[in-house]
């Protein structure tokens, strides 16, 4: 399409599979990570899920 797609705004871990098959350039999940009980664990979960879906 000539541009890179970024997904942002209220993104939760369970939303990631909705974008499978789409070449997403960037996910921005600020509040989901910031507000988590363990932000480090939440970031790792996002990273793991992205690797599984887009590996």
Overview of this protein structure:
The protein is of the alpha+beta class. It has one domain (5-54). Helices cover 38% and strands 16% of the residues. It has helices at 30-34, 39-54, and strands at residues 5-8, 24-28. A two-stranded parallel sheet has the order 1-2. The longest helix is centred in the last third of the chain and has 16 residues, at 39-54. The relative contact order is 0.22. One of its GO terms (molecular function) is 3-dehydro-L-gulonate-6-phosphate decarboxylase activity.
Radius of gyration: 11 Å
Mean pLDDT: 95
How many domains would you count in the coordinates?
1
Helix fraction, binned, reads 25-40%
**Helix vs. strand class:** alpha+beta
| Topology as a string of helices (H) and strands (E) | EEHH
Biggest beta sheet attributes: 2 strands, parallel
Shape: globular
How many DSSP H or I helices? 2
Q: Main sheet: which strands, in order across?
A: 1-2
Strand content: 15-25%
Low-confidence stretches: none
- End-to-end distance: 22 Å
Number of strands: 2
Oligomer: single chain
Keywords: Lyase
InterPro entries: Aldolase_TIM, RibuloseP-bd_barrel
Protein name: 3-keto-L-gulonate-6-phosphate decarboxylase ulaD
GO molecular function: 3-dehydro-L-gulonate-6-phosphate decarboxylase activity
